[in-house]
TrEMBL record:
CDD domains: HTH_XRE. Its main location: nucleus. SMART domains: HTH_XRE. Belongs to the MBF1 family. GO terms for molecular function: DNA binding; transcription coactivator activity. This is HTH cro/C1-type domain-containing protein. Keywords: DNA-binding, Transcription, Transcription regulation. GO terms for cellular component: nucleolus. Coiled coil: none annotated. It comes from Arabis alpina (Alpine rock-cress). Residues 21-77 are annotated as: Disordered. Residues 50-65 have a biased composition (Polar residues). It is found in: Nucleus, Nucleolus.
Length: 142
């Protein structure tokens, strides 16, 4: 140790402190009890409908009566019976299977099956293709 003079420490003492508690920590049950023991003033405020779901389920809204009174039928239009029979009859006259007819109009065989069973939702483009392939009028007045 080649130093001149006595060795001394030149360091300042370092004090590490915790941060001041944030708002959430101040509301903590532990800190509230500590404040009560210390005699500090504690203010408690209850929020309206806090922690409940009453606003969503209680009472009746303005639209409840109109929803209850609504008797509208909300189902999709289906293929009418006359159209089903007309497609089957025309396909039978041409001696085509469902898959052959589907191939003629560039659709899946399932589409023809749905039209003939009455489960399909009528599509004017597909009906036009069927009319051309079968050579009959399927839509409009007969």
């Amino acid at each position: 140790m080649a130093g001149v003079g006595p060795m001394t420490q030149d360091w300042e003492p370092v004090v590490i402190r915790k941060k001041a508690p944030n708002a959430a920590a101040k509301r903590d049950e532990k800190s509230v009890n500590a404040a009560r023991r210390a005699g500090a003033d504690i203010e408690t405020v209850r929020k309206h409908n806090a922690g409940t779901n009453k606003a969503a389920s209680s009472g009746t809204s303005l639209n409840t009566k109109t929803l209850d009174d609504d008797t509208e039928n909300l189902t999709h239009e289906r293929v009418p019976t006359e159209l089903k029979k007309a497609i089957m009859q025309a396909r039978g006259e041409k001696k085509l299977t469902q898959s052959q007819l589907a191939q003629l109009i560039n659709e899946k065989p399932q589409v023809i099956q749905e039209y003939e069973s009455g489960k399909a939702i009528p599509n004017q483009q597909i009906l036009a293709k069927l009319e051309r392939a079968l050579g009959t009028k399927l839509r409009g007045k007969k």
